Amino acid sequence: MADYDTIFIGSGFACSFFLRKRLQRSPDSARFLVLERGPLVQHPDQVANRRNSPVEAQSTFRVDTPKGVETDKLWQFNIGFGGSSNCWWGGSPRMLPNDFQIMTRYGVGRDWPVSYEDLAPYYTEVEQVMQIAGSVATPFPDRPPYPLPGHRMTDPDRALQATYPDHYFNQPTARASRPTDTRGQCCANGVCHLCPVDAKFTIQNGMRDVYDDPRVTLMTDAQALSVDVQAGVAQGVIYAHAGREERATSDAVVLGANAIFNPYLLLRSGLTDGPVGQRLHEQGSFRAHVYLDGMSGFQGSSSITGHGYMLYDGEHRREAGAALIEGWNVPRFRLDHGRWTERTELYVIVEDLPKDEDTVSIDPEDETRPVVRYSGHGDYFMRGVQRVKNELEKVLAPLPVERIDYMPLNQSEAHNQGTTAMGDDPATSVVDRDLVHHKVRNLHVLGNSTFPTGAPANPTLTTTALATRAAEVMG
Question: Does residue 95 lie in a domain region?
Answer without folding.
Answer: yes
